[in-house]
Structures are given as structure tokens and as C-alpha cells.
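Practice problem: predict the structure.
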Amino acid sequence: MNPKELINFLEKLISDNLNISTMIWGPPGIGKSSIVAAAAKKAEIDFIDLRLSQLAPTDLRGLPVPVHPKDNDQQGTSKWYPPEFLPRTGEGILFLDELNMAPPVMQGVAQQLILDRKIGSYKVPDGWKILSAGNRKEDRASVFEMPSPLANRFIHLEVEANYESFKNYAISKNIAEEITAFLAFRPKLLHSMNVDQKAWPSPRSWEIASKLFKHQLPIDIAVGEGAASEFKSYINVYKKIPKLENILKGKGNNISFPKQISSQWATTTGLIYRSKSAKEVKNVFVWLIDNATPEWTQLYASDIVESFKTQGKLSELAKVVMNDEKIIKYFKDFESILNK
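Answer:
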């Protein structure tokens, strides 16, 4: 499944209060933990992320503390004090990341927590769900075999990198529009794992590359030389696209839609990123209707609706757009797009 489908699945799991042990599989760098965190945030519940590969068994089980007998004739006992990072109250997701990168002894400790929802004297509160994630063997990650009894208690979800999901995330996180446009043009470079290289492209490394690019630093140290070289060539495209600010202001009468596919992606993505108000969206729609082919207008419509929906400004957008006769005539089913 793609990241958006995974979020929808997790939201259903949360809303229907299904305490089902869930294991998420996927290659490194696609944002498995970010996806789970986003689902928790949308549900307005807490989120705790534990990297099991970085913990020792006593970190999870806690430490034994001696309990002295009240009667000298009795033998003393010990009590396990659980770690402070485990949840005590409320609702949330306890996310056990890198489960199969943890050594077998650590997986054994985690197994009790996952299957019995308790460990030592600690019990997971009823309002908390336990989710786990790990990398696949074929990704050549340093993983251990998951014990069959543990694997059989999970439902298993496999997630792959997907440009549409990344694009929505990129817009919300203000990742450089040049990077988003480039990956629309070269979607295979969104995730292209190369185990022989230290740096290679993934959603995570492109987000890092965005920060480097915005500060005029080389991005090959994040995504590798091959992807960085292609991106550098693509940047030249941005020197040839129309002046987007004039289109946003409604002054695009003498501006033509580019003919090259690379420039078309750059122009449309740039307009999606820069359309901040309903009035600007209306101006862009009018320009696209007059100058672009329908697929680019529909692409802009779909993405801008998703963006305004995320910001909670969809009704504001509908008021402005639905009052323009030219747009209504072009989008006979625009209302159905707004309500998707």
C-alpha cells in the first residue's frame, strides 16, 4: 500500500478502537514513523516512538529494586520499576520501531509487551495501541529473523514510496517546490535505494536535500551524485518558466503555458505551492483554462483542493471559485471535486 492508504488504515484502526498488533514493513527512508505519528496527530492522541535496536532489555523491562521484609524472619523480594517513557494514562500509540533490527533477546522482551500488553509489573493502558515497524531483508538492512510465534500474532502491512503521497506531505512541510516538481518529472528517483552508496534518494533524504538546497548547499551528500546531477540539470528549467507571481495576481494575459513537459511540471507545481489565497487560486484557474490543456488544470484543481482542505480553508475557496462563471462553465463537476 502507499503512505496515504496506510494512514487511512491506521485512522480506521484508531477510530474503531481495534487493539490489533500491527507490523509495518517497508524500505528505509520512506517515513514509516512519520506516517504513524501523522495518524496519531490527526486522531489527537499521544505518540511514543521507541527505537528497539537502540535499547537493552533492562531499558524496556525496567530495573529490579529490592523490597525489604517487614519481618526479619521473612526473605526479601524485588520489584521491577518500569521505565518512565512507557505510557501510564490516556490514549495513544506506542510505536516500537526497528523491531527486527533488535537482537533476539530484545525481541523476546518486546514480544511480551506486544502479545500480553504487559511486562514485569507494568501494564499497557487500555487506551493505547501498540504498532511496530521494520525493514525488509531484501533492503539489506541489518535485521534479525522475527520468531514465528511473534510474526503470527501481527497483521502485516507493507508500504512503498509513492509520489502523490510525498507531494501532499511536501506541500504541507514546505519542501522546496523545485524538488517536488523534479520528482513529479522523475518519480522513480523518489526512492532509489543503492546499497553500494552512502547517500541515495528516498523521501527522507529528499527532505534533507530540501534544507540543503534552500541554504545553497550541495545536495549530493543527501541523495547521491546521480540524483543530484539530474536535479541540477532540472534547475535550469526554472529559469525558463513563466513569471508565476504575475499569474497569481491575475496579470497573466500575455503569458503562455510552456510547451516542454519538464517546464509544464515546474510551472504547475510552482503555482500549487504559491497559491495562498482563494483569489490567487481563482486567477490561476482562469489562466490555466485559457492557456493549458485540461490535464494540467485538473492536476492543479486536485492538489489545490487537497491543500486548502488540509488548512481548513475549503469553504473560503469554494465561495470565491464557485462565483466565477468562467470557472463554473469549465468545471461542471467542480462541486464534486470540492466534496471529494
